[in-house]
């Protein structure tokens, strides 16, 4: 990795840590947390490529795990607490798998939408939307599966997933498109 890439990766990791350790990254809403932690992951993936993006996704997962296990100043989601109590391994999978797939989906959607062009502004909104959409669908989907596997009471879980989760996921997707597209375009313009 060259110096520029290493420096930018460190900057994006610092942003993930800043967001993950403050209420700016995980915004508590009743029973779920809305996240902005995907933003440095999406931007980093689109600017630096898939390998640094995967590292950023890992950092995102680590921040999520710290919150899930109550080791962060950010409030633990009340929906994750039963999974942590019953199976810490499944809780770790819940924290890391969706987050590690955010850069993969961004990268693949960008490659498909750009039709092989190295830098395509028209492809950015699609890739920007793919990250939080992947995170929301996989995170809440795995949560539902794990509740079932562990025999946890999931009577109200579907309503929360489709209600708050759907609204939150839509909001995160719009936020990603609105912020990521101009940030990545600006970074490309200055040669990042």
Automatic annotation (TrEMBL):
Record protein name field: ECF transporter S component
Domain of life: Bacteria
Keywords (A to Z) from UniProt: Membrane, Transmembrane, Transmembrane helix
Transmembrane segments: 30-48, 80-102, 123-149, 161-188
GO molecular function: transmembrane transporter activity
Taxonomic classification: Bacteria, Bacillati, Bacillota, Clostridia, Candidatus Pullichristensenella
Organism: Candidatus Pullichristensenella excrementigallinarum
Keyword field contains Signal: no
